[in-house]
Automatic annotation (TrEMBL), chain A:
This protein's encoding gene: appB
EC number: 1.10.3.10
Keywords (A to Z) from UniProt: Cell membrane, Membrane, Oxidoreductase, Transmembrane, Transmembrane helix
Transmembrane segments annotated in the record for this chain: 6-37, 62-83, 89-110, 122-145, 165-188, 203-221, 241-259, 266-284, 304-326
GO terms assigned for molecular function: electron transfer activity; oxidoreductase activity, acting on diphenols and related substances as donors, oxygen as acceptor
Family assignment from sequence similarity: Belongs to the cytochrome ubiquinol oxidase subunit 2 family.
Name of the protein: Cytochrome bd-II ubiquinol oxidase subunit 2
Organism of provenance: Paludisphaera borealis
From TrEMBL, chain B:
One Gene Ontology term of the molecular function aspect: oxidoreductase activity, acting on diphenols and related substances as donors, oxygen as acceptor
Entry-linked InterPro entries: Cyt-d_ubiquinol_oxidase_su_1 (IPR002585)
Family: Belongs to the cytochrome ubiquinol oxidase subunit 1 family.
Protein topology in the membrane: Multi-pass membrane protein
Keyword hit for Transport: yes
Protein name as catalogued: Cytochrome bd menaquinol oxidase subunit I
Lineage, top ranks: Bacteria, Pseudomonadati, Planctomycetota, Planctomycetia, Isosphaerales
Length: 338, 443
């Protein structure tokens, strides 16, 4: 197998991990958003539902991000070094968000005092909103070519280059997607029709926001991320991916209105996966445009082969374990009850 | 403050913080699994309670360990991008394997914590075994990368870039076996003693409490066995350091002059200006024997190395003395407990013994922190021994003090909260009554 093919396979593995992180960990962020926005008579019931739904899978859902980072720095060390230098501040803020919400979520579970548990709830929810925005900002800045180090540039922590309209819009887009996913999932986590309806309304509202922001990102990309835009717009696969994404979005909306929740969940997941897949294709072959590609930033052939072997061996342990985890705690959401 | 200093302090703070949680994350699940195994065998409810209690502790500590570990994986790049650009492809493999071990741990911890009444008891116990095993595995993989930083192999440098990279050879670097053995066993010793201390403290207040009595027995068995074998792995680790990093050995021992029949120094404070270590108890030829097995073996002194290649001898020597001292004290307590248990067929429970266990409980963590200072500060000024200097790997980003202050504040806050939650957990000991029936004293 050629070196280029090896690098591509590792890059695809990274993208797939990122997609799974969005589908699982991302939904946990979204759940945090709904935790914060819980309202009305069923406020506490909504929060309990969220707690119960994410508790058992919480830790496992978040390791996917570590996998992406580890693959990035082992397989494409130059790209990792570039991104961590130019994106120092948003990444740091994102980390602080991860630390705060990760620990607050667990503390909430184990704290004996009720008023403190409420405070932990807020400490979990607030960074659940900020962190995905920062993650989106980093991806947006990357796509806009703002993550590449400029010759002789010294990054000042307090004078950021990543705070443009485009990265910010992508950040909000990420937040909206995560909230949408969470709402769609949460419907199936309860049998209570009123609670189901609460999250159904939230899912419909966020679906509309996702659609609007997707359009805005696409429009802004034309001028602010031309490299990515040209691939998304003009390449032979650009249109089919966009059409498929749109079709999933419409299917999810229809399924939500007609209360076919399993269909809605499947469609929303495919929709999200396609959005990220489209991002990956639009960026290809770049990791950090306009200079670092998956070819010129790749580690040696031997390292890539060993990494892929480790991935295969790891999957051998992980996939059955994950299936077991989800069968124990999520089986009820896969059997149709209505 | 220079950017380098800020970066170093931030990295040190993050690691010093994370290491406590990593250590408990390795050993506490192991104790929890022992308790549950005893429950499965004897049917005594107190063991089930114990396993559940330790599981709660594991959950809190795992969460903080996981987030601080996530921070570290990013900080490698945020603070040391050139190190990662150079080393990423060489040591990425053990990191990837660590990622999988961590992943397995997270999955089975979820199953263990939330699956008590949802899966068969044996399957549940097996989930606990997976947590304990993958915790140990991830520690081993991480320490392997650290061993490589101390004894880098598996590549050649051409024009400042690594070529002929062999990640397997890098993983199996000369220090790998010594460091992984020493660190893993240290984790069991440190966590065993820390937990034993808590239960000894509570047992002193409530002598008839079977819960704390059983907990103390398990924790002491785990911590004690580890503490007794630890000096052997420590000796082996020191031999490897003598062979591969003579300058680090010299700093550990406060050895300034190259000499045969070098003495072993106990205590003492190095004076780099005068080139000697004062106030130490010196055992003639002790160091030559320990490091090389011959009394007349030559031990290199710091003076034989260029000043810019020497680590901070004061810090390294003092940390080394602290580590060894703590280790010896823990071994003494373990021997006392073991001897008494063998003679009386029961864990000693005299007030004096319990007091000593309480006093000894922080020693393991102290030894772990000190030992980590020895290996890391002892490698300075190199980030990769002999290949890349720490100063050359630091990020170009300016204003790192902001980041340092923020992270430090975050860690102080988190540490405080964890202590508070753990105290809550310990105070809730009357739960023993829920175990049903009488829980009389063991006397």
């Amino acid at each position: 197998m050629s070196d280029a093919a090896l690098a591509t396979i590792v890059a695809v593995a990274m993208l797939v991990s990122l997609i799974v992180y969005a589908l699982l960990g991302g939904a946990d962020y979204g759940a945090g958003v709904w935790y914060l926005l819980a309202t009305g008579r069923r406020k506490e019931a909504q929060r309990e539902l969220i707690d119960r739904a994410i508790g058992p899978v919480w830790e496992a859902n978040h390791v996917w991000l570590i996998l992406v980072v580890v693959l990035l720095f082992s397989a494409f060390p130059a790209a990792y070094a570039a991104v961590t230098s130019t994106m120092h501040l948003p990444l740091s803020l994102m980390l602080i968000g991860i630390v705060l919400r990760g620990s607050a979520f667990t503390f909430r579970h184990y704290d004996a005092s009720a008023p403190r548990r409420r405070r932990w709830g807020r400490a979990f929810a607030a960074p659940s909103v900020a962190t995905p925005v920062l993650l989106g900002i980093v991806i947006g800045a990357l796509a806009a070519g703002e993550a590449a180090p400029r010759p002789g540039e010294v990054v000042d922590l307090l004078a950021p280059r990543w705070l443009g309209t485009f990265p910010l819009t992508v950040g909000l887009f990420a937040l909206a997607i995560f909230a949408y996913l969470a709402a769609v999932y949460l419907i199936l986590e309860t049998d209570d029709p009123e609670l189901r309806d609460d999250f159904r309304r939230r899912a419909l509202a966020s679906a509309v926001v996702v659609g609007a922001l997707a359009w805005l990102v696409y429009l802004l990309a034309r001028t602010q991320a031309p490299l990515v835009f040209s691939q998304l717009d003009a390449s032979p696969w650009g249109r089919p991916v966009r059409i498929a994404t749109g079709a999933c979005a419409i299917l999810a909306l229809l399924a939500l209105t007609t209360r076919r929740y399993h269909v809605a969940r499947g469609a929303a997941m495919v929709q999200t996966a396609l959005i990220l897949w489209g991002c990956g294709l639009a960026l290809y072959p770049y990791l950090v445009p306009p200079e670092l590609t998956i070819y010129n930033a790749a580690a040696s052939r031997r390292t890539l082969i060993l990494l892929l072997s480790a991935l295969a061996a790891g999957a051998f342990v992980l996939i059955p374990s994950l299936v077991y985890l989800f069968r124990i705690f999520k089986a009820h959401t896969f059997t149709t009850t209505d | 403050m220079s950017e380098l200093m800020a970066a170093r302090i931030q990295m040190e703070t993050s690691l010093a913080f994370h290491i406590v949680f990593a250590v408990i994350g390795i050993a506490l699940p192991f104790m929890m699994v022992i308790a549950e195994a005893l429950w499965l065998r004897t049917g005594e409810p107190v063991y089930r309670l114990l396993a559940r209690r330790w599981a709660k502790g594991s959950a809190i500590l795992f969460a903080v360990g996981a987030v601080s570990g996530t921070v570290l994986s990013f900080e490698l790049g945020l603070l040391w991008p050139r190190f990662m650009a150079f080393a990423g492809s060489i040591i990425g493999l053990p990191f990837a394997l660590e990622g999988f071990a961590f992943f397995t741990e997270a999955i089975f911890l979820g199953i263990y914590l939330y699956g008590w009444d949802r899966i068969p008891p044996l399957a549940h116990w097996f989930a606990g075994v997976m947590v304990a095993a993958s915790g140990a595995a991830s520690a081993i993989f991480v320490v392997m990368t650290n061993a490589w930083m101390n004894t880098p192999v598996g590549f050649r440098v051409v024009d400042g870039r690594p070529v002929d990279v062999d990640p397997i050879a890098a993983m199996m670097s000369p220090a790998a076996l010594a460091e992984t053995l020493h660190m893993t066993i240290a984790a069991y010793a440190a966590a065993g003693f820390a937990v034993a201390g808590v239960h000894a403290f509570l047992l002193r207040r409530d002598r008839s409490n079977l819960f704390h009595r059983r907990a103390l027995a398990i924790a002491l068995a785990v911590g004690g066995v580890a503490a007794i074998i630890q000096p052997a792995t420590g000796h082996y680790a020191a031999e490897v350091v003598a062979r591969t990093q003579p300058v680090k050995l010299a700093a550990m021992e406060g050895q300034f002059r190259t000499e045969r029949r070098a003495p072993l120094r106990i205590g003492g404070f190095p004076d780099p200006a005068a080139g000697e270590t004062r106030y130490a108890l010196e055992i003639p030829a002790g160091l030559s024997i320990l490091a090389y097995g011959r009394p007349d073996a030559e031990v290199l002194g710091l003076n034989d190395f260029a000043p810019e290649d020497r680590p901070n001898v004061r810090v390294v020597h003092v940390a080394f003395q602290v580590m060894v001292g703590c280790g010896m004290a823990m071994m003494a307590v373990a021997l006392w407990a073991g001897w008494s248990a063998w003679r009386r067929r029961a864990v000693p429970d005299s007030d004096g013994f319990l007091r000593v266990v309480v006093a000894a409980s922080p020693l393991g963590m102290l030894a772990v922190e000190a030992g980590w200072v020895v290996t890391e500060v002892g490698r300075q000024p190199w980030v990769i021994q002999g290949v890349m200097r720490t100063a050359d790997s630091v990020t170009d980003v300016r204003g790192l003090w902001v980041s340092l202050l923020t992270y430090s504040a975050l860690y102080i806050m988190l540490g405080g909260i964890v202590v508070m939650l753990m105290l809550q957990l310990f105070r809730a000991s009357p739960e023993v009554r829920e175990a049903g029936g009488k829980v009389g004293g063991g006397k």
